[in-house]
Specification:
The complex is a heteropentamer, with two copies of chain A, one copy of chain C and two copies of chain D. Chain A is mostly helical. Chain A contains 13 helices and four strands. Chain A has a single domain, classed as ABC transporter involved in vitamin B12 uptake, BtuC (Orthogonal Bundle), CATH 1.10.3470. Helix content of chain A is 64%, strand content 2%. Chain C has a six-stranded parallel beta sheet with strand order 2-1-3-4-5-11, sandwiched between helices. In chain C, strands 7-6-8-9 form a four-stranded parallel beta sheet, with helices on both faces. Chain C is built from nine helices and twelve strands. Chain C is elongated and about 60 Å long. Chain D is an alpha/beta fold. Chain D has one domain: P-loop containing nucleotide triphosphate hydrolases (Rossmann fold, 3-Layer(aba) Sandwich). In chain D, helix 5 packs parallel to helix 6. Chain D starts with a strand and ends in a 12-residue tail after the last helix. Classes of the chains: A mainly alpha, C alpha/beta, D alpha/beta. Chains in contact: A-B, A-C, A-D, A-E, B-C, B-D, B-E, D-E. At the B-C interface, helix 2, helix 10 and helix 12 of B face helix 1, strand 7, helix 6, helix 7 and helix 8 of C. The structure holds adenosine-5'-triphosphate (2 copies) and magnesium ion (2 copies).
Amino acid sequence: MAQTTFGVGGLTYDHSKRQLPQELNVLIALVLIVAAFELLGRALLGDSFLLNTRDNVDTFFNQARLQIIILQVSIVGIIAIGITQVIISGGIDLSAGSVVGATAMIAMSFAQVATVNGNPNPKAVFLEQGWVDLPVLVPVLVGLACGLLAGLINGSLIAYTKIPPFIATLGMMVTARGVAKWWTKGEPISFPTEPFAGIGKGLMPVVIFLALAILFHLMLKFTLYGKRCYAIGSNEEAARMSGINVERHKVLVYAIAGLLAAVAALVLSSKNLTAQAGMGVMYELDAIAMAVIGGVSLSGGRGSIVGTVLGALIFGVIISGFTFLKLDAYYQEMVKGAIIVGAVVLDVWRQRRRGTRG
Amino acid sequence: MAQTTFGVGGLTYDHSKRQLPQELNVLIALVLIVAAFELLGRALLGDSFLLNTRDNVDTFFNQARLQIIILQVSIVGIIAIGITQVIISGGIDLSAGSVVGATAMIAMSFAQVATVNGNPNPKAVFLEQGWVDLPVLVPVLVGLACGLLAGLINGSLIAYTKIPPFIATLGMMVTARGVAKWWTKGEPISFPTEPFAGIGKGLMPVVIFLALAILFHLMLKFTLYGKRCYAIGSNEEAARMSGINVERHKVLVYAIAGLLAAVAALVLSSKNLTAQAGMGVMYELDAIAMAVIGGVSLSGGRGSIVGTVLGALIFGVIISGFTFLKLDAYYQEMVKGAIIVGAVVLDVWRQRRRGTRG
Amino acid sequence: ETVGVSMALFDDNFLTVLRNGMEEYAGTLDGVELQVEDAQNDVARQLDQINNFIASGVDAIIVNPVDTSATQAMSDAAAAAGVPLVYVNREPINVDTLPDNQAFVASNEVESGTLETLEVCRLLAEAGTTDAQVYVMQGELSNQAAVQRTQDIHDVIASGDCGVTLNIIDQQTANWSRDQAQNLMTNWLSTGAPFDALISNNDEMAIGAIQAMKASGIAMDQVIVAGIDATQDALAAMQAGELDVTVFQDAAGQGQGSLDAALKLARGEAVDQKVYIPFQLVTPANIDQFLAKN
Amino acid sequence: MSDIILRTEGLTKHYGGVHALVDADFELRQGEHVAIMGDNGAGKSTFVRQITGVERRTSGKVWFDGREVDFPGPLHAREAGIEAVFQNLALADDLDVPSNLFLGREKILFNLGPFSILDRKAMRQATEAALKRTAVKIPNLGNTIRHMSGGQRQCVAIARAATFASKLIIMDEPTAALGVQETAQVENIVRTLKDNGESLILISHNMRQVFDLVDRIIVFRRGRIVANLRKEETDGQDVVAYITGAKSQNLAAAAL
Amino acid sequence: MSDIILRTEGLTKHYGGVHALVDADFELRQGEHVAIMGDNGAGKSTFVRQITGVERRTSGKVWFDGREVDFPGPLHAREAGIEAVFQNLALADDLDVPSNLFLGREKILFNLGPFSILDRKAMRQATEAALKRTAVKIPNLGNTIRHMSGGQRQCVAIARAATFASKLIIMDEPTAALGVQETAQVENIVRTLKDNGESLILISHNMRQVFDLVDRIIVFRRGRIVANLRKEETDGQDVVAYITGAKSQNLAAAAL
Ligand SMILES: Nc1ncnc2c1ncn2[C@@H]1O[C@H](COP(=O)(O)OP(=O)(O)OP(=O)(O)O)[C@@H](O)[C@H]1O
Ligand SMILES: Nc1ncnc2c1ncn2[C@@H]1O[C@H](COP(=O)(O)OP(=O)(O)OP(=O)(O)O)[C@@H](O)[C@H]1O
Ligand SMILES: [Mg+2]
Ligand SMILES: [Mg+2]
């Protein structure tokens, strides 16, 4: 029973009682919510939430629903990955949604086709300059550059002027929203080129989301970058005294968050075949909620990408489940608020029962 | 030079170098911004921002502008007072704006007149029940009860389930927005009674705002309530170990914030003679920004109502200044973001120079 | 039959009337079930809602587009799943390439702003003004109706159809909101510049402006105030002699029309693919026709 | 026996796989001063946290002042009459010294429930008096605790526990950060408590101090109580032998 | 003189009206071990914070290793060769022990700049070795520092400073929270440093320890250096007299 493998000095440590990973709570919440929808569906509608019940399709699961559950949270999920690493390193990013809007507008204006149905593209911003039918790399690079810039500004403000991240990114939120509207005086931009439209087609958003999730999971767990995120989020003063260049790291963290917001913007505008100044409004709040539901601590130093992905799935299941149950839209919002709270309550409660808190 | 009045043990303390109140920074920022608008106005438009330049009026200042500067931030200012005490005690309230929306809808539906221009009021919610032309006390009490309820739910969740305030109030934000839309299925409610319309008439919002500001300034500075807000925000564990009933206090803090949101809702719907489900959206972010610009620390334990009032005035000056300069709306937003950041940068910078940080 | 409906947003005065019209009408039909979702002004959310409808196997979908330039992706999604789709209230950008089982019932926002501005011109001319100073209040700048209605004003000025010269003193957004409009108008009044008319992108902002003017003691028969939507509040203000111009759009009619089209498509019947519903000018002269409508 | 103020039976605390406190049986008589010694990580602070309700124990029973108790929080322990100086000091960093000293027990001018008006002047004066007893030097009582030196902080915590009447005082390494003078002063305070008949549990690593101040020494080792020694019957060498495990009494530790 | 590793001249720090450090002139020779003693709040930690760049001084000059320096942050001080154990320990509460020990100096498997892959196994093994030297007992190195006892935390901080080669080690009350055994072990570590010729500044309130370990004792009082005593020429009584102000050398303190 008593093992001492992980300690020094020969103290009793009961290895069998090692703490289960925190993400388990989130997984349990996810399963509970899915089960609730499945049961309610069978009881109220006589229909199944996850399994296929249509005769014209012969799959076991309702494929369309499984896909939309994750597809509809992929884009906010990409933002949530960036926000997760920001929160772990002790910050917050309120600007992500607005950066998505601004980036989508600017990138999309470099992704326009020259003619629509034989007529010159009515929505092309740079038609006169002839910047149409450009290779897909152009809007992608332009978009990433926009996100990077926004992130660098956020990061530099936070690192070097020491203002609270809440304020720096709130300022960026207001400013980026202004830029998004100013770019075309509020006019939406449509009709992207075929290759650009390919970025967000079909299940591409899911693929991009999951690939990024895996990448950042590895980065946070196994690299210097990750270790420093946790260290700075846990105790910034200690990290600084230990010789970590806290300022440079923060700039990097926010720059990466900006890049991820840009990726989200590219996927979003490609998927919708349009860019609008109002795109992405409030996405940051959903993204933060996903992270926190996934066990990321808002005071920094704790959390994981796996948790955030599970948190995103909870959101996806909720949205699809409500539509499945034909719940009135008013009640949807009311219940959604309650479920967000409920998922976190479950997490806190299980952690306390295990004695790691209080 | 050396005085020891404030210490024990006979140590050197140079009383003359006592730190100036932190609010001074905010005041300086305010003055700088006003000066900037005054100068820009004279340079670009040949007009004065603050002084009267109209022949048909004979006041020294431009009274109308002075009034609107504060009038337009009074309602968000009332919310900011509530949020200030929440932040000082270590929390955050994202639900205030949505609670305003829900409260305005519910309260307004009890403040309807029976007839409009001789016809039965087309917007009255409880016309059939005959709940029209009720005394003004009814909608006021109903509204305050709504705000109180929302605050009590927020506070109880945070205090007793120990979930982060960010999440509890985010949940409430989503839920309250749902309630606001559900109440009349999205229909706005107009045509309130004369006495109800009086609540927000003319400069009443300013009077209410300033009265509440003074009340809460005194409360935070001189009562047990205030001391406990600061103590809990500074170190919750220590406060608990010292025998403060942290849970009960938190419920009280959020309940009061809810009440203030309800006051804001009453003033807002009365001033506009209508209630709409979308009212108050994002007010919480402005309110938080006002508080932080005013020197309230988002990590709790520090800040004051005086600072928040000054922060609110900065907002008011910015809005009026932009309109005065006829700045395009796009640029307004971009510049507003920068000014929010700039005001806080100034504050942080001055604090560091004085050596109280780092 | 189940029909999925995705509305651009719930807390909009006009769209609420449309939605309620649709739901009331569905209540009178046998075996028709509506499932109404709120896209909360987010194009991406709207597309996801359509995909959720498809996953739930609805028989037809009605979309009130958040933005008409985002309709291509929605048409593609519905077409791929073979579910009929009807756009309501706002004309989709892919109007000329709609698949066979898709249609729209909408009005053209170019009309609304144009009707509003021309009526303001007429009233100004009637009052003998030749060189008019006007303020323009815009809706949310990221919103298509706001952009279009503002553009209409400029187009009328440029076309020369307006008998008088309109000088725009300032043009600002009040985000569709009555409260922001009150504040904005008060700020304008504090500059002391004289003006003859206020052209607003909707009635709510016009009413906010009126409240601000009344508070500053401006005689309401000296200025012309114009809005769009013909809401009950606006009609009351018009009866009180404060609001001079508004523009009516048959919300409930559009709701019914779109549902009819959706049901027909679901049953494989033929429909008119394009149905335009015109805007109508409302003035004190014809107000009685509209009192019971929106 | 009514003169036993505190008794624990089988008190146990596990943190996940860490058995920080195992089967602690402990008794403290009214007016007795007892020291707890032991290696770092032996479970001394854990023991204190279980008694004062800061944490919920895994198992075991506690009697205080004649009644079996299970405090849901430190507030209840304090109300029952236990004052504690915790190792982490439990001070509010952003408040000044008087506010910290009276934290949770503020002096009131008018009673209006939670909105009572504070008597700031009385608190400042009482603070000066309380701190003088510890001999600490603090240049400006109006400065926030955040800006105090390690020893200044500790003196504030000690002054707080010593100022309010109680049935049992627990001090977890109270003099660890104190200077020579301040340590002597605090030891004087402890002696005064003895004279007043107040019971005390003192955790300390300082052998001289322990032998100077207490009646009895309890030694913790690896979460267990391994020795219970009357001061007269032992000496420093002996205690160290118990601490390092070179010696062991026939207590629960027999199971080791 | 090239054998002077650290020198300060007129080093002064004011916090608002608090004159925490006034005109400190200090010299440390290569390989010398010096103790700083003084009352709580005398300015000892403040002195350390100015030297290591944690705070910016109000005035005065510092020479380190032959060059005049003004470190903008602790990172630079460390790069120049100063290791410090600060009084507040500077540990990241949410990280485990190896991560804290190697904080800012992680072992790398592949170098990819900021995205380098960590060598977690090597760090764990090195941690076990480093901690064994302090004799501390930690049941699970994978636990977060937040859940360690006061002494365990302190040992981690000491192990960190002692593990990495440096020109000057500063320890601010390193054994304050340590048990008997651990204290002895840490004192051994200090002796090893002496043998290796590393310079050391030790802040401590423990007279026995100071006389055991160092060559020279500096006494701070009210922000000023009031005595500079060679160990052989003084004794405990004498030092206490300087600390309490009963005695005073003809240093800058003459101005008092
Ligand atoms: N919250 C916790 N979670 C996990 N382990 C803990 C927790 N608190 C304490 N421990 C572990 O329990 C053991 C006992 O800790 P405790 O703080 O009681 O020691 P202590 O005897 O007070 O030591 P010190 O003399 O260093 O203060 C230690 O091994 C410590 O790591
Ligand atoms: N940031 C600060 N702001 C204001 N005063 C401070 C600050 N830091 C320290 N002080 C004051 O400076 C004086 C010296 O503090 P310092 O921490 O150097 O003392 P010390 O000698 O290390 O004491 P101890 O032995 O208790 O650790 C104290 O009176 C303290 O209150
Ligand atoms: Mg301890
Ligand atoms: Mg110190």
